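FAQ: What does the model actually see?

It sees only this:
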Amino acid sequence: MNTSAVLDLCLQALLAAAKLSAPVLVTSLVVGLAISLFQSMTQLQEATLSFVPKAVAVAIALVVCGHWMISEMVSFTNDLFARIPSLINSK
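And it is asked to produce this:
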């Protein structure tokens, strides 16, 4: 296994991780921004007001995007398993 193969695998793994985490992170970011704007406008500083809506929104995002996330991960894993013989033989 040469250096370019290792770098290619690392790049693919990082891109897959970024794609899989994007729906949850973007949802949390948008809801957190909306809640913080609401809190600053109403001057209502309650800790549960910022946590509960984010938790609910992230759960909804996981339900909506869960099938896509699993299929992307299965596809990535199948590609890795298919590349094992070529990675072992390349020196």
